[in-house]
Structures are given as C-alpha cells and as structure tokens.
Structure to design on (650 residues):
C-alpha cells in the first residue's frame, strides 16, 4: 500500500538533517530514501536501481571500513590495492572509478586535487554511518559532474527521536588490529546532537604477493581516525539551525614499482607511506511549513582535502584541494496537483568554488581554481494508481567550458496481480575534466585547458517480483535489470613521438552493457538467503578491448540466521571473475598492460551474541578459507583475519 509522505512528520526530522540529505525513515512495509530525487521518496516509486546498506547490516557483518561495506554490492567492482587504508577504486557498471560520485550527507567528496578527480574509497571508516544509499546509473541531472556510473551517499547517524543514547565498540584481531568506536546522541526540547569518534590501527600484512621473488615479508601498517558530529536547534516551530562537521585522517605504508636488485621491479619498501586527510563542515537554516507542505533550506560549508606521500620521512608529493559551497534546496509535497497522485517536487541552486594545489616529483607545481553555478529540478508523481513517473533536469555552468545540461526520465509500473514492479529509465550524464587533467604539466605532458567534459547516455530496464511460499507473504523476492551505456569524449593521454611530449585529449569512447539479477528467500523470520549476480561487458569502443579491472562475472551469496533469540550469524561468499589488468611476473617485472588476472573467491563469517541487554560479543572472520589472490595485479589480497570484539548498542 502506497504511503503518503507527511510533511509534518518530516519537519521534525529535517530540523536536524543537513541540506540535501533529509532524514531517512523506515516503515514496516516501505523504505523512504533521499538520494534518488533529492527528496524523501518511497523506494518502490523510483525507476533507478538503488540499494540501501543500513546500520543493522553494517553491525551484523562487522564492517568497519567503507570498502568492506561496499564489496558485495551488485554492479560494483570494488578494487583495493592492499590492506585497509590502501587506495581503493569503485567501478560502477563498468564505468571508470572517476565516474562515481561520493557524498557524505549530500556533500561532494570527490577529490579536487587527484589526477582524475576520483574519491579514494580505501581511506574511510563507516562507524558514523547511519546508512549508505547506492544508486547505480546516471544522476548528473541531480548532482552534476562525476555521477555517470552512480552515486554513493553516506548518511550519518542522527540523534534519537527523544531522550539520549550511547553506543560503542572495541575489537582486536589478526595483524595486531585494534578498532574502537564511541558515540551517542541527545534530543532535548529544541536541541539535538549526535557525535561519533572512531579509531583503527593495524600492522597490516605484506602487500607484495608471495609469488614475487622480491617479497621480504615487510608488513604495510595503517591507521585511521574519524571524528564527526551533527545537530540542530529549533528557533521557532518553522525555523531551525543545523550544523555538521567531520574530520578524517588515514595513513598507510605501500610498496614500490621501482625497487628490487634492478631498480625496476615490484618490491617491498618500508620507507614509503601516504597520509590522506579530509575535513568538511556545513551550517544551515531550515524553514518548514507543514501547512503548505513546503520545506526549504540554505546551507553553506567547506571541504578540505590533503594527500601527502613520503619516502623515508621526506615529503615527495603533495595534493591539496578545497571546495567552498553554498546550496539552496526546497521540497514541495502538495496534497493534490491536478490529477497527479502523491507528487514530490524538489529544486535548488548551488555555487561551488574549487581550488587545487599540487607539488609532485614529476610534474610542475600547480595552483588553479574554478567557480561553478548549478540549478536543478526534479518531479515525481503518480499518473495512475499503478504508474509513477520521475523526471529531473540540471544545468551546470563552469568558468572554463560553459554550460552542461543533463536530464533523467523514468517510469515505474506495478502489476499488482503478479506482485511485480516494472521500471525503465533513460539519462544523460557528464564528468567535468579535473583541474589536474586540464592544467598539469611536466617534461612529458603539455597542459590542455580546452578539454571538454566526458558525456554519457544510459538506458536501463528492469523488474522485481515477490511470491508467497508456504503461507509466508513475500517469502521469495527476485528481479533483474539490464542497462546499456555509451560514454564519449573520454579523456586519454596521447603521446606524440615526434615531439617527445603528450597531452590529455578527448579521444576515447566506451560501450558498457550488462545485467544484474538477484533472488532472496526468507523461509522463516529467523533466516534468509540472497544471491546477487552481475554481468559486465565494458569495452573500449575504439579498440574493442575489455576495460581493465572490470570482471565480466561476479556474484555474492549472503546468508543470515538467528538460531536463537540472542545469537545471529552472517556469511557472505563472494566471487570475482577473471579480468584484465597491468600485470607483473614472478620476479616483479612489468609483464603486460592488459594481462589476465585470475578469478578468486572469499568467504566472510560473522557471529553476534547478545550477552546482556545492550551488550554484544562479536566474532568476525575475513577470508575464512585463506584464499591467496590479487584484487589488483601485483597486490596481495587480505589473508584470513579473525577479530573479536564487544559492542554496546544504542
């Protein structure tokens, strides 16, 4: 049964939720999400493919890092170059890693100073995450650049609905890994606050694979610190102040590609380290009027990023980025609008001032900036009791290359007699060339400030159904989605042998097709089994060669079981198929720019035991079968790792 979104209920929640990331609410039958139309919307009404990883799932699977939380998500190839803290890329539906937009509570995280503007998913923890919403498919019509393959929005934990709460965790594990988390929230009268502090350190393992002769067993340690808080104060019944702040630091050792006896081999190096730091904050004013079903907010803030590389304690590379932003966003949920059913209208204007500064070993120092204005609008409404349509449009105006217009159109049709939902969508997207891609230069690279944005077009169609079995409603759920994407004007480095110099140019094209299918069986309340399969055909449209690090086949089987009231078990068996990569032989020498990397399987197991009211014991095992594998060619995957901890639930 379709639920009407009550603005009166939303007003109380939104008084503490930072702009563009409205408080998410779950009901027994329906899930409300915010990323799909930048407004609260029933998941069943969205034509997009959207997954939700909630706090309960993160806790049940004992996931501390963002990579762990995302790894088994269908349609995502999560590739990490070593232990926790190492660089990690996420390829969504075969698109490049720079084609996924990372958000924290709606605030853009993609790195301004990085060479391609991608976000490093390997440098973050999820202890302060209330839930993670993952959209697979283009959303530039709502979020602008980078949202070509998808959007990953981390929504923070909030204050409780009333009163106070405290939560915490502490665990120890293999490789001398220690993890600690403490946090809580308070809602009293007009005031509310939620805060979390998290720390993790590990001696790590040797990221150079055992098969490579230059390996000497030197481990690669890592360390994380995350502090976050959000809250608000109601000035009147209709007007509230809000604030959010988050600081994250991570560091990890890594090994070299220029070592060994020859100086040109993949080899251990105890002197190499990177430090990744980010700070974001925002202040906002929220105006909510339940009488006319209207809510509006003004928010401004800043994101600062810094990545430094060290060799024997000396800085070798510095990357610094700053993004100042101001956003005005509104949501209108009229009781009636002509013949439309439950319409939701969202719209807004944004301003960004982006600055990048780099000083690296092989490139000339760089210091550049750019301004950006944007405006967007989205509408979702039912045309009939069974048919919902969603449309959005956005215009981005950049200093360097002018305007870019993107759009999305989609529809959902419900076949109630078959308990089936059919959906289809079409969207245009773009990735603005990064400041580094346009302006970086060296002895081998000439700057190209005239680069154009990379542009994508995607069509997808899918369905999901539910069947009653053995007297249980929706005991079996299953579905599939097929997509077809084209990306043009991809930026590639082109070398001119006659001039002995190269340049970034818009010369590449990619054809991406694939499908994702799932089936979930819940025979009883205490147990469930889910299977997700992903097929990805990602090729260079010019050469016909498969794109690197995108497996054609991958799947995950996840089972949960609560054998008794106080105990829960979760197991995930994940398979990643063979894929192309830049490979290295057993002596660590470069072998091929597109060699075959073998497939692998991993099994993760977690058990949670309630020992006293809110106190739990947690036992987790990563890579239970101790599989030897290379998620990235030349980088060892995580060996079997056991952790034991205690948790205090809210």
């Amino acid at each position: 049964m379709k639920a009407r979104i009550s603005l009166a209920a939303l007003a109380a929640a939104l008084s503490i939720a930072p702009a563009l990331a409205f408080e998410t609410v779950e009901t027994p039958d329906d899930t409300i999400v915010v990323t799909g139309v930048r407004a609260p919307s029933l998941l069943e009404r969205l034509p997009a493919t959207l997954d939700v990883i909630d706090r309960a799932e993160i806790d049940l699977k004992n996931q501390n890092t963002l990579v762990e939380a995302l790894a088994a998500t269908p349609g995502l190839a999560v590739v990490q170059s070593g232990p926790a803290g190492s660089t990690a890329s996420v390829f969504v539906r075969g698109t490049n890693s720079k084609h996924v937009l990372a958000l924290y509570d709606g605030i853009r995280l993609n790195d301004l100073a990085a060479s391609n503007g991608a976000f490093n998913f390997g440098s973050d923890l999820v202890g302060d995450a209330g839930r993670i919403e993952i959209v697979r498919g283009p959303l530039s019509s709502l979020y602008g650049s980078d949202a070509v393959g998808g959007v990953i929005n981390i929504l923070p934990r909030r204050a409780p609905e009333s009163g106070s709460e405290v939560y915490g965790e502490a665990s120890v594990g293999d490789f001398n890994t220690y993890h600690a988390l403490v946090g809580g929230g308070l809602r009293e009268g007009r005031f509310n606050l939620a805060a979390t502090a998290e720390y993790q350190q590990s001696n790590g393992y040797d990221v150079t694979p055992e098969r490579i002769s230059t390996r000497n067993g030197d481990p690669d340690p890592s360390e994380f610190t995350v502090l976050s808080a959000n809250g608000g104060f109601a000035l009147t019944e209709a007007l509230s102040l809000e604030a959010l702040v988050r600081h994250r630091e991570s560091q990890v050792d890594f090994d070299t590609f220029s070592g060994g006896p020859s100086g040109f081999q993949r080899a251990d190096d105890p002197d190499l380290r990177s430090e990744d730091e980010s700070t974001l904050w925002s202040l906002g004013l929220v105006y909510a009027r339940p009488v006319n079903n209207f809510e509006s907010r003004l928010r401004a803030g800043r994101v600062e990023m810094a990545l430094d590389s060290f060799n024997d304690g000396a800085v070798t590379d510095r990357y610094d980025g700053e993004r100042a932003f101001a956003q005005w966003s509104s949501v209108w949920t009229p009781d009636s609008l002509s013949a439309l059913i439950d319409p939701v209208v969202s719209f807004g204007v944004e301003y960004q001032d982006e600055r990048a500064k780099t000083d690296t070993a092989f490139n000339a120092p760089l210091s550049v900036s750019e301004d950006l204005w944007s405006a967007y609008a989205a509408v979702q409404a039912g045309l009939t009791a069974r048919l919902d349509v969603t449309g959005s449009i956005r215009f981005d105006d950049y200093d360097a290359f002018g305007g870019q217009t993107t759009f999305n159109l989609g529809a959902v049709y419900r076949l109630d007699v078959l308990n089936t939902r059919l959906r289809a969508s079409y969207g245009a997207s773009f990735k603005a060339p990064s400041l580094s891609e346009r302006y970086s230069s060296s002895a081998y690279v000439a700057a190209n400030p005239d680069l154009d944005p990379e542009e994508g077009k995607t069509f997808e169609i899918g369905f999901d159904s539910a069947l009653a079995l053995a007297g249980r409603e929706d005991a079996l759920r299953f579905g599939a989605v097929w997509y077809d994407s084209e990306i043009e004007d991809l930026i590639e480095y082109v070398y001119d042998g006659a001039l002995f110099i190269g340049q970034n140019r818009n010369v590449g094209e990619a054809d991406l097709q694939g499908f994702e299918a799932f089936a979930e069986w819940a025979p009883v309340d205490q147990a469930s089994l889910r299977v997700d399969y992903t097929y990805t055909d990602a090729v260079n449209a010019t050469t016909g060669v498969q794109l690197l690090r995108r497996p054609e086949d991958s799947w995950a089987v996840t089972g949960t079981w609560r054998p008794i009231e106080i105990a829960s078990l979760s197991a995930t068996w994940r398979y990643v198929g063979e894929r192309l990569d830049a490979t290295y032989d057993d002596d660590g020498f470069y072998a091929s720019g597109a060699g075959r990397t073998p497939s692998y399987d991993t099994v993760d197991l977690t058990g949670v035991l309630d020992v006293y009211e809110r106190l739990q014991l947690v036992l987790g095992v990563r890579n239970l079968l101790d599989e030897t594998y290379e998620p990235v060619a030349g980088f060892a995957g995580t060996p079997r790792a056991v952790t034991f901890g205690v948790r205090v639930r809210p």
Observations:
- The two ends are 31 Å apart (CA to CA).
- The CA atoms of residues 50 and 227 lie 28 Å apart.
- Residues 7-14 form the longest helix (8 residues).
- The mean pLDDT is 92.
